Amino acid sequence: MRIAVIGGTGMLGAPVTAALRDRGHEVRVLTRHSEHPVDLTTGEGLEDALDGCDAVVEAANTRSPKLAEEVMVGGTRRILAAEQRVGVPHHLAISIVGQEAVPFGYYRAKVEQERLVVDGPVGWTLVRATQFHPFVADLLASAARLGVVPAPRFLTQPVDAGEVGAVFADAVEEGPEGRTITVAGPEARPLRAFVDEWRDGTGSHALRIPLRVPGGLGRALRDGGLVTDSPDVRGRITFRQWLAAQHSDEPVATRP
Ligand SMILES: NC(=O)c1ccc[n+]([C@@H]2O[C@H](COP(=O)([O-])OP(=O)(O)OC[C@H]3O[C@@H](n4cnc5c(N)ncnc54)[C@H](OP(=O)(O)O)[C@@H]3O)[C@@H](O)[C@H]2O)c1
Q1: φ and ψ of 167, to 5 deg
Q2: Mutate which of 6, 12, 168 to test ligand 1's pocket (most atoms within 8 Å of Cβ)?
Q3: Which residues contact 107 (CB under 8 A, 6 or more apart)?
Q4: What does the radius of gyration of the chain's CA atoms come to, in whole angstroms?
Q5: How far is the CA of 164 from the centre of ligand 1 (A)?
Q6: In angstroms, rounded to a whole number, what is the distance separating the alpha carbons of residues 8 and 52?
Q7: Better-scored residue on pLDDT, 222 or 13
Q8: Mind listing the pLDDT tens digit for each residue in 72-82?
Q9: For the residues 177-201, what does the mean pLDDT come to?
Q10: Mutation test of ligand 1: which of 5, 6, 11 has the most ligand atoms closer than 8 Å to its C-beta?
């Protein structure tokens, strides 16, 4: 099959691309800076890049809160319209476990993005995942550059992005069944437990400071808004194993 992976160089897009290529599929990587340049904020390049594709995986993202709406909601609208024009039969998108329960602008954009896909004109599959291991590690590393790491109590359940990539590759091969697949990491624990593992694993001496997230956002997070004990697919690679693999040439050894 020929598949376009939008955001194919990102934390999720790169392992999706690798999983599809490993299975012998032809992958077009679409980003603002790839061989097939597209810009989701304008739609530029989309129609040409999607023409002739059997499926499109939408895995773009923005770190800018101001652009979240434009890249994810506007971007999804533009992608779906281009897919409809050139006849792509299957759109696959990524959402976040619990996003509708957490009052935060980024998650509101994700909820709207998901709605567009489900109500849209193209056959679809949604994958809802928990936070990726490198996302948690990057967050802590950014804070540690200022000498501190926040250690809140709220539950998080990081998952290996490669395992999520494999779920996408399966879903591409299964075709547009209009279903939502949830994928979560092996352990739901307070973020502060992962902070301790991260400090051990990286040797960071950044000061660990307790943090209480205020308001409705804090309440939703403390109530386990971003975790699930009944995912369709439970990842096997723990945060500790993933961290260890970052400093080793050995593949990640999973628990039995
Ligand atoms: N990170 C997590 O823990 C997590 C967990 C669950 C779900 N998700 C979801 O997974 C998706 C991907 O997140 P990620 O963390 O993997 O992203 P990421 O690592 O930040 O990568 C973003 C990708 O999007 C591309 N991109 C950014 N702006 C673009 C634009 N205007 N037009 C076209 N391409 C653009 C980037 O390439 P260029 O910069 O070259 O354009 C890059 O390939 C998001 O929908 C996110 O909500 C993330």
Answers
A1: -65, -40
A2: 12
A3: 96, 99, 100
A4: 18
A5: 14
A6: 18
A7: 13
A8: 999 999 999 99
A9: 96
A10: 11
> Residue 159: pLDDT above 50?
yes
DSSP of 30-41, one letter per residue?
EETTSSEE-BTT
How many A from CA of 214 to the centre of ligand 1?
27
Instruction: Report whether 3 contacts 53 (CB < 8 A).
Output: yes
Q: How far is CA 211 from the centre of its chain?
A: 25
Res 64: pLDDT: 85
CATH 3.40.50.720 fits 2-246, yes or no: yes
Tokens representing 69? Answer: 């709406």
Q: Which of 94, 93, 96, 87 is nearest to 121 (CA)?
A: 87
Does 151 contact ligand 1 (Cβ within 6 A)?
Answer: no
| Residue 85: CA count within 13 A, CB half-sphere | 13
Residue 124 Cα, ligand 1 centroid: separation in angstroms? 19
Name the token pair of 171: 């879903």
- Ligand 1: does its nearest atom lie under 6 Å from the Cβ of 61? yes
- Distances in Å between the Cα of 229 and the Cα atoms of 155, 190, 198, 220, 239 are 12, 14, 23, 16, 17
Q: Where does the chain have alpha helices with state H? A: 13-22, 46-50, 68, 75-86, 105-118, 133-144, 161-174, 191-202, 215-222, 239-246
Domain locations in the chain? Answer: 2-246
